[in-house]
Amino acid sequence: MQSQLLKNEPLARYTSWRVGGNADSVFIAESLSELQAFLQSLDDAELIVFMGLGSNLLVRDGGVRGTVIVMHQALSDLRMDGQYIYAEAGVTCGKLARFSANHAKDGAEFMAGIPGTVGGALAMNAGCYGSETWNIVHQVLTIDRAGITHVRNGSEFTASYRHIEMPVLDEWFLGAWFKLELGQPEQSLKKIKNLLAARLASQPLNLPSAGSTFRNPQGDFAARLIEASGLKGFQIGGAQVSPKHANFIVNVGECTALDIELLIRHIKDVVLEKQGVALQQEVRVIGEYA
């Protein structure tokens, strides 16, 4: 297959919340060489947004005046590279977790609980169950606006909770080499199975959502604070605080991005008033209002 360039494309098709307006252009990359050529063709002033599975992203109803580059169909190489595991940006986190376990590598099991791609996990230092992506990164491969690739050491990046400080602006992740300990496949696969069972039991996976909406404050949990504020089940339009997990906002039907954004603001205001805690959202918001 060749790469596709789609004009005035609805971004609701590409986000896990299933909401969002149109992008001026959506480029679906099928190979690195085609991605490089496409980046070289763009104007220097063009807004560029890289997207994986759209699982931590809210696109406003007015859409994006620029180009969205969808990665998960092309950059899907996953292999052993010496002592490291190399995964391209389009590989799902769950696939990386299982591959690592099957190759007797321990330390990536938590990735099975992240509903996105390696590229997204690198961009936001995704994590769950006490572990974070950048704890296991050795090196990364990036690409800049000119389509030039760079290998950078993990030490060049400053990682913090759900955030990564890039050493250079306008570079995006193409892949990473992960450093993992020697493990036992049976034990690692059992960890993954237990983690997925816990996720299924505690999270509303039957409705469109973007995973955790807010970061956990130091020493506490966003879900506990939201529930203690009486907001479980609270709804604005088609956006609802999940009755199953208070840190999830779910699309219960006929939902707009504005419904979600208004609900996020309402949660912040109520939790600050009732609990004295200023919640920080984990979800990235892009685009324009309708």
**What kind of oligomer do you see?**
single chain
Query: What's the structural domain tally?
Result: 3
Q: Write the CATH fold name of the largest domain.
A: Uridine Diphospho-n-acetylenolpyruvylglucosamine Reductase, domain 3
User: N- to C-terminal separation?
Assistant: 34 Å
Order of SSEs = EEHEEEEEHEHEEEEEEEEHHEEEHE
Query: Which outline best applies?
Result: globular
Query: Helicity, in percent?
Result: 10-25%
CATH hierarchy: architecture of the largest domain: 2-Layer Sandwich
What is the name of the CATH class of the largest domain?
Alpha Beta
Mean pLDDT: 95
Written description of the protein model:
The protein is of the alpha+beta class and 290 residues long. The protein folds into three domains: 4-70, 2-Layer Sandwich (Uridine Diphospho-n-acetylenolpyruvylglucosamine Reductase, domain 2), CATH 3.30.43.10; 78-202, Uridine Diphospho-n-acetylenolpyruvylglucosamine Reductase, domain 3, CATH 3.30.465; 222-286, Uridine Diphospho-n-acetylenolpyruvylglucosamine Reductase, domain 1 (Alpha-Beta Complex). It is built from six helices and 20 strands. The protein has helices spanning 32-41, 93-102, 118-124, 185-202, 222-228, 257-275; strands at residues 4-10, 22-28, 48-51, 57-59, 64-70, 78-81, 84-88, 105-106, 127-128, 131-132, 137-144, 149-153, 158-160, 163-165, 171-178, 181-182, 235-236, 239-241, 249-251, 284-286. A hairpin with a 7-residue loop joins strand 18 and strand 19. Helix 2 (93-102) packs antiparallel against helix 4. The model has no long low-confidence stretch (mean pLDDT 95).
